[in-house]
Structure formats: structure tokens, C-alpha cells
Design goal:
Largest sheet of chain B: 7 strands, mixed
Number of helices of chain B: 0
Largest sheet of chain A: 5 strands, mixed
Radius of gyration of chain B: 13 Å
Shape of chain A: globular
Distance between the termini of chain B: 38 Å
Number of strands of chain B: 11
Radius of gyration of chain A: 13 Å
Largest interface: A-B, 23 and 29 residues
Number of strands of chain A: 9
Distance between the termini of chain A: 36 Å
Strand content of chain B: over 45%
Shape of chain B: globular
Structural class of chain B: mainly beta
Helix content of chain B: under 10%
Order of helices and strands of chain A: EEEEEEEEE
Structural class of chain A: mainly beta
Oligomer: heterodimer
Chain lengths: 110, 114
């Protein structure tokens, strides 16, 4: 069962920051927050993960609230190639599976 | 470094037939997970293989089975195909033993059952 809640769709203007929210109110202390994205009919692509601190890599930033019940993925300068479905997942650091929900369909508009 | 590869890319079968899908894991990875993704849905976990044994299974019937080979590649077998088995089948590899077991996905095999 998916343990996260995401809005079904969002739009973002090209060049602007895309902020994708995720609620995970039942997250446990040993569960990480992962973000993947899936461009149409391709395999999901790993973006970033975090436990309690904010994280940044070459693709995105992840902001996790202090109570860890929600997080936001930030794409700082969205491009048309960022149009995809974005999945927020919570998972123990090592385990059998990822629970995917239905994700957020992000459309970057020229 | 070679990423996760899957074969074939597309496949058409008829109801009642059997199908085998293949996955080569990313270099250095020892664990393979399989997912089924129906149209418009997120991927659903089928099972995972580690050290050539099934190591966790989702809510899928026994006609979904798998294998992992000594080189860590894997097969997904589906018997007695049903129309609802039409989906994108995704393979993901990871390294069991790393501090964080991030899964990396292949491009998938799209199966159509007629």
C-alpha cells in the first residue's frame, strides 16, 4: 500500500522552479523519502532521497519538514524535458520493495 | 558502467500462453526486483531476488515466477496469461549491502495479451 499522497497533476512554466509536494504522515523513524520520475513509457529514474535533512544534487533539491510528515521536491529551473510523472516513496533503508502511488504528472509549459 | 537492460522491448501473446521476460542487472548489483505497471498506474511490486532466491513477494498469484542466475541476471515467467496481464514489466537492480539500497530501473518490456 502506498504510504504517500501527491496531487495528481501540476503545471510549471519553463525556466521557473517546480515545487512538487508529498504528504507522508505515517512515516516511521527509519524510513527514507525517495523521489523517482517516469518519462512516458520509460523506466522510473532515480532523482534523490533523504531521511531528515534537506538534500541537494545535480537534478533537484529535497526539503523535508521537521516532523517528517511531508516533503517537497524542487526542480530549480524546469525544462520541457522535466515533463514526467513524479513519484514520492517512503521506504526503510534496505527492504524488499518500493510502494509507488499514482504520482504527480508534471507538465512544463513553454 | 552498464545500466539495467531488459528484453524483449515489446511482446504480443495470446491468452493462456506463457511468457519469459529477461533482465540484466547493473554492473556491481546483486539484487533484482520486478514490477508490473498497468496503464495509468504506478508500478506494483511483484517480487525480488537476492542470492538466487525469492526474497519478498507482492500480491501476485503463483503463476508469476522468477529466477536469478549466478551472474545476477533474472527472468520473470508468467504462465496461463490473462488479458489483465497486459502491462509494462519493469526490472530494477540494487546492491544489497550498501548503506542505502537504491533501485535503478530498466526501460521495461511492454506485454500485450490478446
Amino acid at each position: 500500500d502506498a504510504k504517500t499522497t501527491q496531487p495528481p497533476s501540476m503545471d510549471c512554466a519553463e525556466g521557473r522552479a517546480a515545487n512538487l509536494p508529498c504528504n507522508h504522515s505515517t512515516i516511521s523513524g527509519n524510513e527514507y523519502v525517495y523521489w523517482y520520475r517516469q518519462i512516458h513509457s520509460q523506466g522510473p529514474q532515480y532523482i534523490i532521497h533523504g531521511l531528515k535533512n534537506n538534500e541537494t544534487n545535480e537534478m533537484a533539491s529535497l526539503i523535508i519538514t521537521e516532523d517528517r510528515k511531508s516533503s517537497t521536491l524542487i526542480l530549480p529551473h524546469a525544462t520541457l524535458r522535466d515533463t514526467a510523472v513524479y513519484y514520492c516513496i517512503v521506504r526503510v533503508y534496505t527492504g524488499n520493495q518500493f510502494y509507488f502511488g499514482t504520482g504527480t504528472s508534471l507538465t512544463v509549459i513553454p | 558502467e552498464t545500466g539495467v537492460t531488459q528484453s524483449p522491448t515489446h511482446l504480443i501473446k495470446t491468452r493462456g500462453q506463457q511468457v519469459t521476460l529477461r533482465c540484466s542487472s547493473q554492473s556491481g548489483h546483486n539484487t533484482v526486483s520486478w514490477y508490473q505497471q498497468a496503464l495509468g498506474q504506478g508500478p506494483q511490486f511483484i517480487f525480488q531476488y537476492y542470492r538466487e532466491e525469492e526474497n519478498g513477494r507482492g500480491n501476485f498469484p503463483p503463476r508469476f515466477s522468477g529466477l536469478q542466475f549466478p551472474n545476477y541476471s533474472s527472468e520473470l515467467n508468467v504462465n496461463a496469461l490473462e488479458l489483465d496481464d497486459s502491462a509494462l514489466y519493469l526490472c530494477a537492480s540494487s546492491y544489497r549491502g550498501a548503506r542505502l539500497e537504491t533501485q535503478y530501473f530498466g526501460p521495461g518490456t511492454r506485454l500485450l495479451v490478446l
